[in-house]
Structure formats: structure tokens, C-alpha cells
Write a structure and sequence with these properties.
Blueprint lengths: L13 H9 L5 H4 L3 E6 L7 H11 L2 E6 L3 H10 L8 E6 L3 H6 L28 E13 H7 L19 E4 L5 H14 L3 H10 L3 E3 L2 H8 L9 E5 L2 H7 L11 E17 L6 H11 L2 H11 L2 E2 L8 H6 L11 H18 L3
Parallel strand pairs: 1-2, 1-3, 5-6, 5-7
Antiparallel strand pairs: 3-8, 4-7, 4-8, 4-9
Helix pairs in contact: 1-4, 7-8
InterPro entries: ThiB-like (IPR005948)
GO molecular function, one term: thiamine binding
GO biological process, one term: thiamine transport
């Protein structure tokens, strides 16, 4: 989830997505009854040791196939609904869930361990077809050193980002091409309601920069990475990632922090694909994704929080990953019904 994952492009090439899905090459005739193909986005990471452990404990050989970002992955799955080339899909999140359920992509199954998932994450399982696996929060990240050096107060609310004190300081991502960009746009819709476009007009007038991707925004425009903008849309888990990926000797604490106002929660799900001939083994893979070992692996493999309650977190997470007290969310059905209109309205306001 940490790179420009969340992984949803609003306008998708259905034909190319279908080609990617078909390239899985994992029909039951080819794979055999003990093989399960997991279709996922290209930011999915799981250790080989865990895959080997799955085979040792269940006899299942797991084949992992990626199909671009989550939006492209889902577009292919929609076209192949009922006759999938894979058995399980992971990576559909709460902004895409309604699209998946409307297309009847999944079979009816939730993990036998669903009761162990944190209650706030399982309020929507698409009427019993998906299981929450992880979550993360998209938030404004702050280059603390930049503000400290200039003796400028850091913002404490996204409302302040329209003020003259923060002119030309913010970089966001295009919501049509970037998952965190989309999440931030949805956060403004959730927070400001009918006034969300007015907020964006004020941001535009205050010099907000729009990048095409998380990589362009965080790694090029963000001042902590050598750019000129000390405020960037990223993740609540970006600060611990800064420590993990730093060269030795590693810093004792991150140089960045997180603005917890205006954060948007993203939840990633897994489900059994309707039409698989390997239903039982596919269900076992969904259960495996929610197992203690896989859940404990998620924070440092994908920089997300595990969905399973009381999963131990690595020290770098407990110290530096920000827990957002009141994350924003919109119902999946509302997003699905309005997203195209919202994106068009955003384009008009931002002169895109």
C-alpha cells in the first residue's frame, strides 16, 4: 500500500486488463487440484517462507499473478466474471468493492476467522463475499524539518491548507491516476460535503501542485525527498517506511510526521472468484491471508496494518506509524454511484 498502490485508476482499459487476467494461465486443467492462483495487484508482497509453509500445512501450491494496479486488476476480473483464470483475488479495496459486487465477481465466502477481524473493518463484506485483510490511512505528510527551519507552524487541520501561510506548499496526486490522490479527493468529499468543490477551488488558488503519481509527488516534489513542497498526500505508515528504507546508520526517528485530520481509510479485501473449480482450496487461501503468520508479515512487507485484531506489530510501527483516531470513509455504494461525476467536477475545478 505504501508505493502508488491503492491502485485505482478511474478510467481503465478493459481490453488490456482482460489480457492481463487471461495471462494468468491457471485453469484447473493446467494447475491441478492442489494449485491455487491468487490474482493481486502489483504491490502485493508476501514472503516465500509463508508460501512454503502454506504448501507444507495444506498441500496447496500457491501461484501469485499480478495484473497492474487494483483498478486494472478488477477491470479484468469483471470481464472474466464467472469464468476466471484465477481462484482468489486480493487487493480490491473499499472504493472498488461495490463495482466488484455489482459485477458478481466473487463467490459467497468470508473467512472462518472473520470474527477475529477488528470490528470497524468488517462493517461491509459485500454481503458476505469478501474478507478484510489489511488497512491503511491516506493522510497529509509533513516535512517537520522544513517547518522548523523556517519557524512556520505546521498545519493541524486540512482546512488550514487554503490559508496564505501554506501557499505553494502542498502537493497532491491526480485522483484519476493515483490511489492516494483518489483517497484524498474522497476525504474532502466526506469532510466538506456539498462544499468540497469550494475547498478544491481554494486549494487551487493557494498554489496546490498536482502530480500524476505517488512516486512523482513523494519522491520528487516532497521537500523531505529533495523537492520544494513540505506537505504531501501519502500514508500514515510513510514515517516508519522512511526508517526501514534508510541507509545505515539509520536515523533514530523519522524526519516527517502525519496530519491526522482529513485522513481517508482504505481497507483491502480478499475473496473467492465466482466460477473457480477449486472452491475449497481457494477458501483455504483466503483463511491463510487472515492467519496470524501472514497478518504479522504485512506491516513490513506492504506497510499496512493487519486486519486481524491484536496482531503484534514491529517496533518501528509501534513507535512511528500514526494511528488515526477518526478516519474518514464513504460507503462503497456511494463512491461507485458518484465517482465518475466527482472526477469530472474535480477536473473542471482544477482546470485539468
Amino acid at each position: 500500500m505504501f508505493s502508488s498502490v491503492f491502485k485505482k485508476i478511474a478510467v481503465l482499459s478493459a481490453a488490456s486488463s482482460l489480457a492481463l487476467l487471461a495471462a494468468c494461465g491457471s485453469s484447473q486443467e493446467q494447475a491441478g487440484p492442489a494449485a491455487v492462483t491468487l490474482l493481486t495487484h502489483d504491490s502485493f508482497v508476501v514472503s516465500e517462507a509463508l508460501v512454503a509453509q502454506l504448501k507444507k500445512e495444506t498441500g496447496i501450491t500457491l501461484k501469485i499473478t499480478t495484473a497492474g494496479d487494483a483498478g486494472a486488476m478488477l477491470a479484468g476480473a469483471v470481464l472474466a466474471a464467472g469464468s476466471p483464470s484465477a481462484d482468489v483475488m486480493f487487493g480490491v479495496d473499499n472504493t472498488l468493492l461495490a463495482k466488484a459486487t455489482n459485477a458478481d465477481v466473487f463467490s459467497a465466502y468470508t473467512s472462518k476467522n472473520l470474527d477475529l477481524v477488528s470490528p470497524a473493518l468488517k462493517t461491509d463484506t459485500g454481503n458476505g463475499v469478501v474478507t478484510p485483510i489489511d488497512y491503511g490511512d491516506v493522510c497529509i505528510n509533513i516535512d517537520d524539518a522544513w517547518f522548523r527551519k523556517r519557524n512556520v507552524a505546521v498545519p493541524t487541520s486540512i482546512d488550514q491548507l487554503t490559508q496564505p501561510a501554506y501557499k505553494d506548499l502542498l502537493v497532491v496526486q491526480d485522483p484519476a491516476t493515483s490511489s492516494p490522490g483518489l483517497a484524498f479527493m474522497l476525504a474532502t468529499q466526506a469532510k466538506f460535503g456539498d462544499q468540497w468543490l469550494s475547498y478544491w477551488k481554494q486549494l487551487e488558488a493557494n498554489g496546490v501542485q498536482v502530480s500524476g503519481s505517488w512516486t512523482d509527488a513523494y519522491e520528487s516534489a516532497f521537500s523531505a525527498s529533495g523537492g520544494t513542497r513540505p506537505l504531501v498526500v501519502s500514508y500514515a505508515t510513510s514515517p516508519p517506511a522512511e526508517i526501514v528504507y534508510a541507509a545505515n546508520p539509520k536515523p533514530k526517528k523519522p524526519s516527517t510526521s502525519v496530519l491526522t485530520d482529513g485522513c481517508y481509510r482504505q481497507i483491502e479485501f480478499a475473496g473467492v472468484l465466482r466460477g473457480t473449480q477449486n472452491e475449497g482450496a481457494a477458501q483455504q487461501v483466503v483463511d491463510w491471508l487472515l492467519s496470524p503468520a501472514v497478518q504479522a508479515d504485512l506491516p513490513l512487507s506492504m506497510f499496512v496494518f493487519p486486519a486481524r485484531a491484536n496482531t503484534p506489530l514491529p517496533e518501528v510501527f509501534t513507535k512511528f506509524a500514526t494511528k488515526v483516531p477518526n478516519p474518514l470513509q464513504l460507503p462503497a455504494t456511494v463512491v461507485d454511484a458518484n465517482l465518475k461525476t466527482w472526477l469530472n467536477q474535480w477536473d473542471e475545478v482544477m482546470n485539468r
